[in-house]
Amino acid sequence: FIQQEITGQFSNVATTNSCLTVKLFRTPYEFEFRLFEYCKNHPIKEVDGNEEYSLNIKTEKGVKYSWTVKHKDISLVFNYKDVKVFQELLINAATLRVYMYSKSNPLSKYTFKINANGYTKIFNSIFPITPEKKSARIYKEALSQGNQLMKEEQYEKAATKFKEAMSINPTYCIPAYNYAIAVEYFKPENYTENILNWTHFITVAEKTNPVGRRTDIQNAKSHLKELKKAEEMSKLK
What angle separates helix 155-168 from helix 173-186, to the nearest 10 degrees? Predict the structure, then answer.
């Protein structure tokens, strides 16, 4: 795991701006904060098992984020869905200003800064990205970028992204479907290519997801007949 030790300040009904030590732990699945009041050796512990803290972060660009973290034994932990968001902050920001307080006792406040420089390099050296995860990430990004380009009516660029997603995972029918649509938008009279693209989608969908894509398959087959008819008509001109 990754561990970072930080010095900050805390205040409550008994003290103001006293010394605080914060230990940030990163495991493959969680982030944990441990707070040590008066910079001592024993972290604060949960009281009733349901204690929550408000975690507020501000980047050096002034962007603000807020989460609720739970006190679990001696650690404050994120919900699983928030871990990736917090990690993206550490990757993209140099410094994070943190302000925390107990929801059950708002007078207990904690402030500190996280230096995120070099985090990505350290994380990747300890938890290396497998080729499978890297491919999955590139596939997801290509599909997302293609969908956005479709919204912007940049169909040729969208087709390039969908083709990239298809090359990463040829068994997925979504990029094949989107690719066929995108190409036909900017090459409406290239019947040969459009017929090949829709035939490819039907083949992939029938092999991998015939039930879930049943309607799309039926519509594609119907459209395929129209394209073949249009191709025959074009040859008569």
Answer: 150
